[in-house]
Design brief:
- Helices cover about 40% and strands about 15% of the residues.
- It is elongated and about 135 Å long.
- Helix 6 packs across helix 7, helix 11 runs antiparallel to helix 12 and helix 15 packs across helix 20.
- The strands form 10 sheets. It has a 6-stranded mixed sheet, covered by helices on one side. A 5-stranded mixed sheet has the order 12-1-16-24-25, with helices on one face.
- The N and C termini lie far apart (about 135 Å).
């Protein structure tokens, strides 16, 4: 104090005036900043809110098989609880043997607004839905349940809020809060001197702080701009700000801002602010639908959400709630009958709807897509709702398939368990018709590694790239400009014998996986049996630039190098883009735009952005079906045969892939409704020592069987098989020659584009004209057999007196 007076005595009047002016200016500017920031909170229910990201809703429809355990788990994750009696309210359910009763809650979605209400799901034979009924008994064709929350984008704030208007808040909630926190709110001017004096007296008597004297206006100022530390300076600032608020804004504006700002608990790492979000968190309902008991509990939580948490301390929560009710009775805002009925009510809260622990890799992928597609229009903290294409049932199936695959692999092959690196996997599932990403697993454990192997990692696909080469050869653009040049077909014969190609990097000599040669094989056989040498010849005949062109048409965006080894998958691609390429084949040549985001809704529930599921046809249906036919054969007769042994018996087209030294294992395939890709390997590229059919195929099979049933005909992604497109000819051909079947040449049915089937027929005379050197050993044996037959026939004719002038 003396030092302060000494400073003044040693200064001129001008210096003192300047110092005073600086203090006033600083305080004034602080109040201006405070006022400007406050406007955002008092001009309406604003402030930062998390942008919430949801999966697609779970849709129930008549005829759908229902898994009781899954439905119960789904409702449990949403925070629904089992109803205590036959009266099923919002956020409750009862599951009986022949009927499910669900009290749906209100929710908004980009395709519909559900008002909630009672839903009855009746089951028929086989556990399928026979009838859906609303609360009035009206029959429904289908019903959407709430979508699961995947995660939240909170921006710079960790506050989770759902803003409300004062008119939305029931009067008994306002009365409960004012009764316990500030009974003279509408009478004071920001400070309640009587309450402050009473609190000081109570604290002095107790020797500690037992009572607070802050008004709602002071609490609002503290919550918005001040630290929670109890210091004299903070209390002074709080009082000044409260006076400013009261002088500039109405009581209704201040009360509305308080209701949207008050802290009411935690949901994981997010702080719950405001009665709008708290009513959803604790009771699973909109704030406008709270009853007196629930309102009293929310008011009770304000003093200490952790001290009176109904989840952890239900007895303490009930005691504090009853105190609120008692004060409301004493104040006369509720009747004695209402008070007694409310006291009988037990503490009933819903389990919180926490973000799904799965789909973390998809959530990361989605954030990058939001930034690239919408920029600043979809910002964290903007309070939007992002509805995605993710199907949480398939997502959990995918994660379980990966976990089970690891357990099986590492149990059977202990050498795969490395101390310094973990075996990794990724799985992607798409709807080829719409481009929707249905399931997305980017690694073994998100907690250990956040690197996304589904979309960010690029690895050599090996033989999984061969269908792209086949499409390049079989489609019209791969026939060359020479009209006389014979187009490639599935029956075209390729040489499977040693091949050495001169390249700038030195000689390149492809080999088959078993290092054997098979002579002459057809394009179909080479694809079904994944033969490298014939496909290397096919790739060079078509030309690497043509292969790159087709890959681009299929949606592959990674750098592709037009070298001979491209045909065997030497250029690196991501699992997501290769799965999408297979999806184009599944959709009959239609390339759908990838669609992870279905729609974005603003704070008022209005559609802000919505994807229409666009795409473009890049190949003819008949051209695509030729490759599909061969990939179906790969499952029946080729490298994908184990899929049947592992329990999937529906129609599927698929291909395995293995890179040099067994560094990567792939298995990519599709049905008409699902395109699925699986990759297995180590991040550092060390060898796994096993082919893709051994490491990735079991994961693929487990997921596909779970998604569509063992026979591929169950659930929304079941199907009746591939449709045979128009514009294809079926001709019997001799697979050894590629010619039409004829006398002495056995035939197999093969598919051809119009005008591409061979015109010449195979016969013994044709084989004779070709000569011995131009045919493989099997053909030579066949030719020798026919030579012996002809000689014996001629000998019989000579002996029987036939025409002796006929040449031998």
């Amino acid at each position: 104090m003396k030092a302060g007076w000494a400073w003044f005595r040693g200064r001129s009047k001008a210096a003192i005036v300047m110092a005073a002016f600086a203090v006033v200016a600083t305080v004034g500017s602080a109040l201006v900043v405070f006022e400007a920031a406050t406007v955002a909170h008092l001009d309406g229910p604003a402030g930062q809110q998390p942008t919430r990201v949801y999966a697609r809703p779970y849709v129930l429809y008549v005829g759908m098989p229902v898994d009781r355990e899954y439905l119960e788990a789904y409702l449990d994750r949403l925070g629904y609880v089992t109803a205590g009696n036959s009266d099923v309210g919002p956020g409750e359910y009862r599951l009986r043997s022949r009927a499910f009763v669900i009290g749906r809650r209100h929710f908004r979605h980009h395709e519909r607004v559900s008002r909630g209400g009672r839903l009855v799901v009746r089951l028929g034979s086989g556990g399928r839905i026979s009838r859906l009924e609303d609360a009035d008994g009206q029959e429904l064709a289908h019903v959407a349940l709430e979508p699961e929350l995947i995660g939240s984008l909170a921006g710079q704030s960790d506050k989770d809020r759902v803003p409300v208007f004062l008119s939305d808040v029931p009067s008994h909630l306002v009365d409960a809060i004012l009764t316990i926190e500030d009974q003279r709110f509408f009478d004071h001017k920001g400070l309640d001197l009587k309450r402050i004096a009473a609190a000081m007296l109570a604290n002095v008597r107790a020797g500690r702080v037992v009572q607070g004297g802050s008004t709602l206006t002071q609490q609002l100022a503290k919550n918005l701009y001040l630290s929670p530390r109890r210091t004299l300076i903070r209390k002074v600032r709080e009082a000044v700000m409260a006076l400013v608020l009261e002088s500039r804004h109405s009581k209704e504006e201040i009360l509305e801002a308080y209701l949207n700002e008050v802290y009411l608990g935690q949901n994981g790492g997010m702080a719950i602010h405001g009665v709008g979000r708290a009513s959803q968190h604790y009771f699973g309902k909109d704030v406008s639908r709270l009853d007196l008991v629930e309102s009293a509990l929310l008011a009770a939580l304000i003093r200490g959400p952790s001290l009176y948490s109904p989840y952890r301390w239900p007895d303490a929560a009930k005691a504090r709630r009853d105190l609120v009710l008692n004060r409301m009775l004493a104040r006369g805002v509720i009747s004695e009958d209402a008070y007694l009925r409310a006291l009988e009510g037990s503490i009933v809260v819903r389990r919180a709807h926490r973000p799904a622990r799965s789909a973390r890799y998809f959530f990361d992928f989605l954030q990058s897509r939001l930034r690239s597609e919408f920029g600043g229009d979809v910002a964290p903290g903007a309070g939007l709702a992002v509805f995605t294409s993710l199907d949480m049932r398939l997502q959990r199936l995918a994660e379980e398939a990966v976990r089970a695959g690891f357990a099986q692999l590492e149990s059977r092959y202990p050498e795969l368990v490395q101390e310094d690196a973990a075996l990794q996997a990724a799985l992607v599932a798409l709807d080829p018709r719409t481009g929707d990403i249905l399931a997305f697993v980017g690694g073994r454990d998100y907690g250990e590694s956040q690197f996304n192997r589904a979309s960010s990692a690029r690895r050599q696909p090996g033989s999984a790239f061969k269908p792209i080469v086949a499409l390049a050869a079989l489609s019209a653009g791969g026939w060359g400009e020479n009209e006389d040049e014979r187009p490639f077909t599935l029956a075209s014969v390729l040489e499977d014998e040693r091949l050495v190609v001169a390249t700038p990097a030195g000689p390149w000599e492809p080999v088959n996986y078993d290092r054997r040669f098979r002579g002459r094989v057809t394009v179909r056989d080479a694809l079904e049996r994944s033969l490298n040498v014939p496909f290397a010849r096919l790739g060079m005949a078509v030309g690497p630039p043509r292969i790159v062109e087709v890959a681009r048409d299929l949606g592959v965006e990674s750098p592709l190098y037009p070298v001979p080894s491209l045909a065997l998958g030497s250029s690196e691609v991501s699992l997501l883009e290769l799965t999408r390429a297979y999806g184009v084949l599944a959709a009959g040549g239609f390339r759908a735009d990838l669609r992870p985001i279905l729609a974005v809704l603003d704070r008022e529930g209005k559609v802000r952005d919505q994807s229409q599921g666009q795409g473009v046809r890049v190949f003819d249906q008949a051209e695509s079906y030729l490759v599909t036919s061969a990939l179906r054969g790969a499952v029946e007769r080729g490298t994908g045969q184990a899929l049947r042994a592992l329990g999937y018996h529906g129609e599927v087209a698929a291909k395995s892939g293995t890179t040099n030294d067994f560094r990567d294992g792939w298995f990519i395939g599709y049905t008409p409704t699902l395109a699925i890709g699986v990759w297995v390997g180590f991040d550092d590229g060390r060898s796994i020592g096993l082919p893709g059919a051994r490491v990735a195929l079991p994961i693929f099979t487990r997921f596909l069987a779970g998604a569509a049933g063992a026979y591929g005909n169950r659930g929304p992604y079941g199907n009746s098989g591939f449709s045979y497109p128009p514009g294809l000819d079926m001709v019997e051909v001799d697979p050894r020659t590629g010619l039409r079947a004829g006398p002495g040449c056995r035939g197999q049915r093969e598919l051809f584009l119009p005008g591409t089937a061979p015109e010449e027929s195979c016969s013994p005379l044709w084989l004779l004209r070709r000569g011995w050197r131009d045919v493989d050993p099997a053909l030579r044996d066949e030719l020798a057999r026919w030579r012996d037959v002809l000689l014996r026939r001629l000998e019989r004719e000579v002996r029987s007196g036939g025409n002796r002038n006929r040449p031998p």
